Amino acid sequence: MEIGILVFSLPRDDFASGHERLRSSVEALGHVAHVFYEPLLGFIQYENEIKISYDGKLLPQLDVLITRPGYIEEPGLHGHVVDLLKRAGYLVINSSEGTSFSKNKIAQHVVFSGSGIPMPRWGVAHSTTEAVHVAESIGFPVVIKVPFGTWGAGVFFAPQLEVLHTIAHYLSVRDRNPMLIEEFIKEAENSDIRVFVVGGKVIAAMQRTARANDIRANTSIGGSGKFVELSTDEVELAIRVVQIAGLEIAGVDIIRSARGPLILEINANPGFKEIEKVTGIDIAGAIISYALTRISLTKM
Q: Which of 73, 121, 244, 272 has the greatest number of C-beta atoms within 10 Å?
């Protein structure tokens, strides 16, 4: 089989796609791996067909293409890539709709809460005045997030009004985008759970704990991971939100609270280096096995 891995960056900016592990898993199973970088793709629309080039040459035929959408820009700038690849006949994992949804933290909160998914109390504000009102309604301390961000970037902690006011004013001037304001779950002790889901099944999970003097548990910025057993409710919750998002490969972040597990967010480009290390589970292999299953189902 010819298996492609599509990284949404240039090689020099590829820090967390995991394409090396995916490539080695493909080759270990006796298949051929190809790594492509999204900025080098070109699309030409003819009357009844689309021609796709890569670095000046026609993109080869592939049995499947696994996307690693590590971008943090407005997702609308990248969604057309997957749509055009699919229109040209390529089998692509994940969908553009699911990926775009996962990139927008506010959209996630609106859809998940509307679907009855338990989450920390939250609100959205477009100005400093409204941010203060939302935070006072939720109760301090609060967490402030920008709509688009990854690896913990754009996440701020406001223990009191003075800090919130400074952060909200800065974001309203710099971005002019709405701010997501969330309840801080104190009893979680600056930790959360990353659940890795592939093909509708939970593959692995780890507990992530923030480094000293930080609330962000992301292992990419110094947080530490360890193996964790999931409850039945946590497994079911992770699978449900991935189904709602319409993703095939996803990382789900859950926080344990006094009122049960709560969803923080979902990620269409979950890293797997740390979770493989702490669990001993071959996540790259699971992704490739799922991709091969999708190929088989498509050809039936």
A: 272
pTM: 0.91
Please state, in angstroms and rounded to a whole number, the distance separating the CA atoms of residues 179 and 129: 12
Q: Which residues contact 55 (CB under 8 A, 6 or more apart)?
A: 40
**Residue type at 223 in one-letter notation:** G
Q: Three-state DSSP class for 276?
A: helix
Tokens (6 digits) for 287: 């992704």
Distance CA 34, CA 54 (A): 12
Of 123, 115, 54, 136, which is closest to residue 90 (Cα–Cα)? 54
Q: Which amino acid is at 271?
A: G
Cβ atoms of 67 and 6 within 8 Å: the answer is yes
SS3 state at 257? strand
> Following CA atoms 172, 106, 99, 176 in sequence, which dihedral angle do they give, to the nearest 10 degrees?
-10
Tokens of 127: 């100005």
Residue 69: both structure tokens together:
């959408």
First-to-last C-alpha distance (Å) of the chain: 16
Comparing CA positions, the residue from 290, 201, 209 lying closest to residue 256 is: 209
Q: Which two tokens stand for residue 112?
A: 């998940």
Cβ pair 73, 105 in contact under 8 A:
no
Q: What confidence tens digit (pLDDT) does each residue in 59-111 have?
A: 999 999 999 998 877 777 888 899 999 999 999 998 889 999 999 999 999 99
| pLDDT higher than 90, residue 175 | no
CA-based angle 268:148:261, to the nearest 5?
60
Query: What values do phi and psi take at 44, rounded to 5?
Result: -125, 120
Selection from 15, 59, 7 nearest residue 35 by Cα: 7
- Identify any residues that bridge with 261 across adjacent strands, giving them in sequence order: 256
- Give the whole-angstrom CA distance, residue 177 versus residue 276: 36
Provide the 8-state DSSP code for 94. S
